[in-house]
Predict the 3D structure of the following.
Amino acid sequence: MNHPVARLPGHPHIARKDGVLQIEGQSLSELAQAHGTPLFVYSKQWMLDALAAYQRGFEGRDALVCYAIKANSSLGVLRVFAEAGCGFDIVSGGELARVLAAGADPVKVIFSGVGKTRAEMRQALAAGIGCFNVESEAELEVLNAVALEEGGRAAVSIRINPNVDPKTHPYISTGLKGNKFGVAHDRAVAIYRHAASLQGLQVVGIDCHIGSQITDASPYLEALERVLDLVEAIEAAGVPLHHLDFGGGLGIDYNGDTPPAADALWQQLLARLDARGFGRRRLIVEPGRSLVGNAGVCVTEVLYLKPGEEKNFCIVDAAMNDLPRPAMYQAFHQIVPLAERQGQATTYDVVGPVCESGDWIGRDRVLQVAPGDRLAVLSAGAYCMAMASNYNTRGRAAEVLVSGTQATLIRRRETIEDQLRSEQPCA
Ligand code: LLP
């Protein structure tokens, strides 16, 4: 008998076979049965394919992809990228410990973020990371002092705020004058001159990151020209730069979005780099979402259907503590039933059990569902589990990594004992 397989548009690793949703050929219902819900399931192949698009784009160049682990810092995910030879972009001592535990090469680790503590700087120096992406003049002074105390030199790149609008949600725009990130374009040459004079520092690069979920190449091209203008000015002032780091930010398809593919984007950027004579420089990128976002789904079970006066609610067992993006950024995630059923379709707001009206996962979704059915929330590989919380004393979900015929539980479901372990009532 011929079993029709229908791939989900934009999600080549997810398909419906005989009415049942599969990821890399494995039944999501069986995984949910085995591990319970809410459950995050990731496709290893999707991650490797996403990485391959960057690698194709950089073929023949001196380039390093540093996965921005804030998108999904689960050890099982980090191991996939470490084994593939990736570098990592981290923003805390905790993230440093994670990448080292996953087997990262410390030389390929870069440390971003506006608020590094002295302890984190010491930890990163001791680990021998490749570069600190410094975000302010004050941080430069502290890093210099810490490196001198430790008897070493810290390799630094300075993050430039190019004042470019990435045309994305305001909370995830980072390269505008009003944002807290990076140093102002106008101050950059003076700051570089000063940095080069500090004994505890070794200036190695320049970086920028203009925002996230960018679906258009033009802000990247604009930022690139501005950064290259600065590189010319900084080098003319006598400070050579070894590498150029263009951050992350490339978007994914959540709901028919059409971001450029990583290799197509880099073809355009490299053409400009070549034209301006920088094509042979060492290049670094820090993608997060575009390496993991569409690799993952969150499987959730329908608890209750609740007809309302103005709205019908589909109450599921995942909530804003598992999937915070709709509540935080009014983000859209597709929601599809694991098994198709016949019957009347109804328009629902899909909501979680958390006691807040902001606890919604999808609004006005047309679904044919009944209590006990399972739904897949798509595009849940990035900024979901990494941003999950224990709000309402909900344990964080379990995670499974699927690779071919294998399914590995890479994080067990958090128990109430896990949550209470670090607390105690007053005596
Ligand atoms: N590099 C730096 C310095 C960053 O700040 C970020 C993300 C990245 C790289 C990776 O960006 P990506 O390639 O993932 O866009 N929670 C938000 C996204 C916050 C992004 C923060 N910075 C969301 O769920 O949309």
Notes: The chain is about 30% helix and 25% strand. The chain has two domains: 5-43+293-420, 112-287. The chain has a mean pLDDT of 95. The CA atoms of residues 22 and 28 lie 5 Å apart.
